[in-house]
Amino acid sequence: xxxxxxxxxxxxxxxxxxxxxxxxxxxxxxxxxxxxxxxxxxxxxxxxxxxxxxxxxxxxxxxxxxxxxxxxxxxxxxxxxxxxxxxxxxxxxxxxxxxxxxxxxxxxxxxxxxxxxxxxxxxxxxxxxxxxxxxxxxxxxxxxxxxxxxxxxx
Length: 154
Fold this sequence. Notes:
The chain is of the alpha/beta class and 154 residues long. It is 34% helix and 23% strand. A 7-stranded mixed β-sheet has the order 2-1-3-4-5-6-7, with helices on both faces. The longest helix has 24 residues, at 2-25. It is globular, with a radius of gyration of 19 Å. The protein starts with a helix and ends with a strand.
């Protein structure tokens, strides 16, 4: 009987710990103190939609409107080969284009040795690029030397 009580108590404690770990893992990025600063053109509507996608995912966003997004991309050392319409920074990472928030959360959790993430161009169906047609696209992990590998397929 005594072991049954211990086993029941241990089981409850284990379930409570698992529930707490699950909750912690799903906390929004702002709870971790992460702010994403995005550099975008004042006239770009799709960039604004991406910012809203990020806010809905729990990120704290700082929007900096610039006349020359290319200069910001170059300053942050993101290669032109993966260019899109906006560039952002979160912690030590650079973000280029319409990257899904879940990919950025994964990047921040895994902390790979990399410059950041990129979704080159502006693929229909990516966050902020809503429309009737979607195409498959990849989020790329961009390394410090400019080389890339697939981080996530969408």
